[in-house]
Amino acid sequence: MFDRYEAGEQAVLVHVNFTDENSKEDLAELELLVSSAGVNAVEVITTSRSAPQAKFFVGSGKAEEIAAAVKAHDANVVIFNHSLSPSQERNLEAVCQCRVLDRTGLILDIFAQRARTVSYTHLTLPTTPYV
Fold it and tell me: How far apart are CA 94 and CA 110, in angstroms?
């Protein structure tokens, strides 16, 4: 639905603090990954939850806040510091009207940007949407 972003684009970062200590993701590491991808983080939105919400991962109110930040900063991509299900990505893309990536997708895109050999095919195939 949305094309892969190009270096130099604007991103809204989303980080959720869970009460479960086993699900800690490092926000500073995400910012370094985003920088490595050549993307400019224009805003970081954080929230706390006890568990992910099924439809948007974050609550519907926070999803609207993210969409407002995308519009205010004219961002091209929203990057979550957590793994999202395909339905959560689609739902968030519909609300935000831009590409939504999770942490794993960001890492795959960084590798794809730097791939110079046949391995490029191995990296782009898993990120290609079904037609």
Answer: 24
Paired tokens of 50: 């006890």
16 in Cβ contact with 48 (< 8 Å): yes
The mean pLDDT value for 80-106 works out to: 94
Q: Which residue range(s) make up the domain with 57? A: 10-127
Mean confidence (pLDDT) of the chain: 84
Q: Largest Cα–Cα distance in the chain?
A: 44
Euclidean distance between CA atoms 78 and 101, whole angstroms: 6
Instruction: Name the pTM for this structure.
Output: 0.80
Pairing relationship of beta strands 40-49 and 77-80 according to DSSP bridges: unpaired
Q: Tell me the per-residue pLDDT of 96-124, one tens digit each, with 9 for 90 and over.
A: 999 999 999 998 888 877 766 555 556 56
In a domain, 5, yes or no: no
